[in-house]
Amino acid sequence: MSVKNKSPWITINGKNVADSQLSIEYLKKELNIDANSHLSPREKGIATSVRIMMEEHMYFVGGAEAYVHHGGKHIFTHYPPGLLPLPKFMIKILLATLMKREINKMFYYQGIGRHTHEEQQRIGLKELQAVNDVLGDNKFLMGDKPCDEDAAVFGLLSWPLCCNTDDNFYNIELKKFPKLMAYFERIKDAYWKDWKDRRYPSKE
């Protein structure tokens, strides 16, 4: 984890930058790149709103689904063994006891844990529908050219699709949004040529 106990983070030229959005802003300034220069102020506002909804709300809805309602079982199927700090049997014990209490407490204090499972899923589906509606028939979130927020949305779509078990609610439901699925594949094919080699377990 980073010095802020946040993930992801970057280290560039000896400088540590935690949080995906702060990392993007740092790189834009250092490299003099602006992937949003083609957007109007209104479009920038819409794109930012979608990103914040996904990062600050859908993130927790999806996290509750994976860690609370599925018991964190994706850790044992989609995390390379070298990333696990302890043997699997010990992690299973911790997930069932101490970590379960702490995880439930975190989601409760954040707010999403105060809702029933059904309410959480209903909220998550509405948010996916909102992203789908903003996307429409566009190639990317705000049109034919990608913007910063496409990177964030892609990452948050990859979480249920590629980092969770096949019976995860959002893994199943996302596949009912053909435009979002095509959008996900479009970004993956354009920017992650080595996707199959880097994914664990290695599969399409």
Largest sheet composition:
2 strands, antiparallel
- Which segments are poorly predicted (pLDDT under 50) over 5 or more consecutive residues? none
CATH topology of the largest domain: Glutathione S-transferase Yfyf (Class Pi), Chain A, domain 2
From the spread of the alpha carbons, the general shape counts as globular
What's the tally of helices? 10
Please describe what this structure looks like.
- The protein has 204 residues and is mainly alpha-helical.
- It folds into two domains: 1-33, no CATH class; 34-198, Glutathione S-transferase Yfyf (Class Pi), Chain A, domain 2, CATH 1.20.1050.
- It is 62% helix and 4% strand.
- It has ten helices and two strands, in the order ββαααααααααα.
- Strands 1-2 form a two-stranded antiparallel sheet.
- Helix 7 (148-162) crosses helix 9.
- The protein is globular, with a radius of gyration of 18 Å.
- The two termini are 28 Å apart.
- The mean pLDDT is 89.
